[in-house]
Specification:
The protein is mainly alpha-helical. It folds into 4 domains: 157 residues, HUPs (Rossmann fold, 3-Layer(aba) Sandwich), CATH 3.40.50; 154 residues, Rossmann fold (3-Layer(aba) Sandwich), CATH 3.40.50; 39 residues, no CATH class; 97 residues, Arc Repressor Mutant, subunit A (Orthogonal Bundle). It contains 19 helices and 12 strands. The structure holds one RNA strand.
Length: 476
RNA sequence: GCCCCCGUCGUCUAGCCAGGCCUAGGACACCGGCCUUUCACGCCGGCGACACGGGUUCGAAUCCCGUCGGGGGCACCA
């Protein structure tokens, strides 16, 4: 049984990079009929906040990532919040003490900093010297008498090369001398990430650890801990990270990078899911617009491209537009779009929103585009922003007048009526093309571009159309 | 500085492991055309890459070595 986990630390909104990690874990789990565990890594009390946890969960659900066990739903291996697992960690720290894998280190941060600088100056890798590694009982007593606090360090076997097979990177070899004896328990008694992550993954029977490439160099430390505790070492897969336009790790500097921000801008979760999956992974067929189910079906973790990927906003926008105009049915789209209409102060009933969307959906990339594309359906006191000359010219005015006269006494006006009427005006006044339509367009919308006029008129109806024309006729 | 990972169009990538089918395929973006009252959509076309240098080989994007470049990591953060 495949078991994977997504283990974010609740320090802010769900970041795109984390979202993608969660996504790949989910896809991998589902592809293999396995389980996904949501664990919260809140051992860093400084930065972790409970409300972030709820946001994280909310964003994950919105994205379409579903887990089988976790903080909010419990499970066989609860608790799933690290801050609630301290007793468990103590137990395993105790084991490491018994087996002699860890030892007390009394060095102060200042001393360590000193060593570090010295090492750097001598161009040696800045790692712990192992000074307290073989302290005698007496020396220890003495240091403790001085009132020194201590941390527990892991006794790293000198010179060993840790070799593991990464599902994405292939064989990775790292010599442990790179890092030296590392801290397992802080001076305040709290265990450190590299330790708890191993305990949790092992106890939760995680079979595949799929995470960001930034964890690659931590992996040997963790393997050492697995071995020391006689735990089975899981398989690892390190995802290449996501880069910003400038090719550095995607961060807040690159603008909106939380999935929340994309959601607020009017990206659809399906497009987000699809787009994130396409960062580093590619379907065998060339069709890139794929549903969650299709992605899950086709996904192979070995197929993940192993070079870091620059996040492509333009492509995500395009993908989103495909979902808006082709993938969602009108009712579904309407439901999702309503909050956006309201946000922009465009009020109407469900049916009206639906009609508007039917005619503008082809021009939307994100739901926020509703602001610009839908205003002619809602705003009556618009100003003439461009094309003033079309309504000021003699023929322009005449076109508008005739148009007004011809619809004044009608019951209503639909798209076909509009075409008939403009055809009549064309014959009567001998104007066509731009000179025929622009005056009407500018009069009705205040702009020289936008929706098809026959559709606009049909949707807003006769009354509004007349009112708008009257207003313009009075101005010019 | 040291270690690790990586290097195909501007971007995401296919191809690389099992060398010839690659005058390197697709998608986004961009440019041009068509459709059209405008915008958008759609359709057609164009531009555009194997980082560089050595090998190995009849033949290399594919294998080997080096260089350069990019990224990540080197915490009592996760």
């Amino acid at each position: 049984m495949v078991r994977v986990r997504f283990a974010p630390s609740p320090t802010g909104y769900l970041h795109l990079g984390n979202a993608r990690t969660a996504l790949f874990n989910y896809i991998f789990a589902k592809h293999n009929n396995g389980k996904l565990v949501l664990r919260i890594e809140d051992t860093d009390r400084e930065r972790s906040k409970k409300e972030y946890e709820d946001m994280l969960i909310d964003d994950l659900k919105w994205l379409g990532v579903e887990w089988d066990e976790g903080v909010d739903k419990g499970g066989e291996f609860a608790p799933y919040r690290q801050s609630e697992r301290t007793e468990i960690y103590k137990e395993y720290i105790e084991k490491l003490k018994q087996s002699g894998h860890i030892y007390k280190c009394y060095c102060t941060p200042e001393e360590l900093e000193e060593e570090r600088k010295k090492a750097l100056a001598e161009k040696r890798p800045p790692r712990y010297s192992g000074k307290c590694r073989n302290l005698t009982e007496e020396e220890r007593k003495k240091l403790e008498a001085e009132g020194r606090s201590y941390v527990w360090r892991f006794r790293v076997p000198d010179g060993e090369t840790i070799i593991f097979e990464d599902l994405i990177k292939g064989i990775v070899e790292i010599n442990v001398n790179e890092f030296g004896d590392f801290v397992i328990v802080r001076s305040d008694g709290s265990p450190v990430y590299n330790f708890v992550v191993v305990i949790d993954d092992a106890l939760m029977k995680i079979t595949h650890v799929i995470r960001g490439e930034d964890h690659l160099s931590n992996t040997p430390k963790q393997i050492l801990i697995y071995r020391a505790l006689n735990f089975e070492v899981p398989k690892f897969a390190h995802l290449p990270i996501i880069l910003g336009e400038d090719k550095s790790k995607l961060s807040k500097r690159h603008g909106a990078v939380s999935v929340r921000a994309f959601r607020d801008e009017g990206y659809l979760s399906e497009a987000m899911f699809n787009g994130l999956a396409l960062l580093g992974w590619h379907p065998k067929e060339d069709n890139e617009v794929l549903s969650k189910e299709e992605i899950i079906k086709e996904f192979k973790i070995e197929d993940i491209h192993n070079a870091p990927a620059v996040f492509d906003r333009a492509k995500l926008r395009w993908l989103n537009s495909v979902y808006i105009r082709e993938k969602l049915d009108l009712d579904d789209l309407t439901k999702r779009a309503i909050p956006f209409f309201k946000k922009f102060g465009y009020f109407g009933d469900y049916e009206y929103y639906k009609k508007v969307l039917d005619v503008i959906r082809d021009s939307l990339e994100v739901l926020n585009d509703i602001k610009d594309r839908a205003y002619p359906f809602f705003i009556e006191d618009y100003s003439i922003e461009e094309g003033l000359e079309f309504i000021q010219s003699e023929t322009g005015k005449e076109v508008i007048k005739r148009f007004y006269e011809k619809i004044k006494d009608r019951e209503n006006i639909d798209r076909n009526d509009f075409k008939k009427i403009t055809k009549e005006i064309q014959k009567e006044l001998k104007v066509k093309g731009k000179n025929l339509f622009m005056p009407i367009r500018v009069a009705l919308t205040g702009k020289t571009s936008g929706v098809d006029l026959s559709l606009l008129v049909e949707v807003i109806g006769k009354e509004k159309t007349l009112k708008r024309l009257e207003r313009i006729l009075n101005i010019v």
